[in-house]
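Quick entry between incubations.
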Amino acid sequence: MTDRIREFLSLRRPDGPCLVVDLDVVRDNYRTFATAMPDTRIFYAVKANPAPEVLRALAELGSNFDCASPVEIEAVLDAGAGSDRISYGNTIKKERDIQRAFALGVRLYAVDSVEEVEKVARAAPGSRVFCRILCNDTGNTAEWPLTRKFGCVPEMAVDVLEHAHRAGLEAFGVSFHVGSQQGNVEAWDGALSAAAAVFRASAERGIQLKMVNLGGGFPAKYLREMPTVRRYSMAIGSALRKHFGNRLPETIIEPGRGMVGDAGLIKAEVVLISRKEKDDPVRWVYLDIGKFGGLAETMDEAIRYPIRTRHDGSEAAPCVLAGPTCDSADVLYEKTPYDLPISLTIGDEVLIEGAGAYTTTYASVGFNGFAPLRSYVI
Ligand SMILES: *Cc1c(COP(=O)(O)O)cnc(C)c1O
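Done. Structure below.
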């Protein structure tokens, strides 16, 4: 927890669960990416945390933005970034949404099929497109893996890009995403090998691709120690040189979690501590926030947040951790129980760290009457 967040919580004492985001940390993270990867343009993945203050701070620092809908595009424009700094990175778009984006000035679009190319060619004529390729996380090293929903096989990407070229679009490049919270700095190597093959095959058809979109995947700090941005940058740099030689493409990255994850902290409260049988060694600890209040990424116990209490350092024992709603899926950690202090009591405050990404956007509107996660950006 940063001093600024500590001070905010002690002065304001907000009631109910809330997220507090420290903009200084977001700015530091941006500068870390920019310094470690000076030749790469940064497109912040807006969905990770679209708070206007976050967008404004990043726009002021010169960031570009990866958007998935007209609403996100408008939020970025409102934050002061021009449409030339926006990529419409969703491969699944309604044609009228593409029209809207085009009218707002967006000229860079993601596709992963000939069918989507047709829509972009009609609704955003002459724009740049990049084709997303499938990327299998062979080592299973991403904590929040992305499945087969987005991207096509590299061989098909060549056809998709040629189709775009013939339809009057600019076949601009290739994108991929190695899986979110990717702990393996080498994970980009296989995807860059495939991207280089798409570049070569396209060149044989007379199409000179220019750009590789390296996606997100850069980690936030949760319980496990993660490599530094600099180590990702070195590994990606050497993979680029290995597969592209001295004809290096233009590159962009789209960090979401790595930009805002460790900038935010959720303040929550223990509602109940109980047991399922009298002498059961495992306590059930119910918080006033759960899967539907913003902690959706605990699905399959994928993301394990660090949790602080005022009893830290004292003896701890395993707990099942659950949320407050009447849905039995609202259990955060059970397969791998969570160690919490034995002296933890009902009414205690708990602080969930690393919660700046994918929390406010995943909170339900009012399930069981619980309000969406409140957010303060300081
Ligand atoms: C969500 C998303 C990102 C951000 O991924 P992180 O792992 O949070 O950095 C980047 N690019 C695209 C296309 C995305 O959908």
